[in-house]
Amino acid sequence: LDQEFPLNKGWALKENLKLGNKGGGKRISKKVVQYLQGYFLTGNLRAVDRYSPENMHTCLEELAAEGEIVLEEISTVKTIKGWIGRYSANFKKEASERALVENNKENINIEGNVEESAKFNNKATMKSSFPLSKNFETLKK
Fold this sequence. Notes:
Largest sheet: none
Number of strands: 0
Number of helices: 3
Helix content: 55-70%
Organism: Diversispora eburnea
Protein name: 8516_t:CDS:1
Order of helices and strands: HHH
């Protein structure tokens, strides 16, 4: 119990941690992300127009040559591949959630229409069956 702890006081505090380069690094700029999204969605609409990561990188280099973006903003092909994987997964998830919401809306509309038609049919059968039941009562006597 009287042993000394080998680490200095406050060693676990966040400001004293030495993470090296973890979490740091270059991020893809918003402008480049917009171009990448455009390339991705173009290929998503028509498979013939699909861009490979290499094609996307080449197009970004052409944009840099035209002065649209800065050359330092261009990501590597490896980074673009990673971005495509993340964006594709997120895109599919959002698309399936939208489809689920639309499906639920359609089901609610269909159920509402079925209930309305059931009410209408019940009213119609009640009107048509009322005279029959009246006749049935007279036949019973």
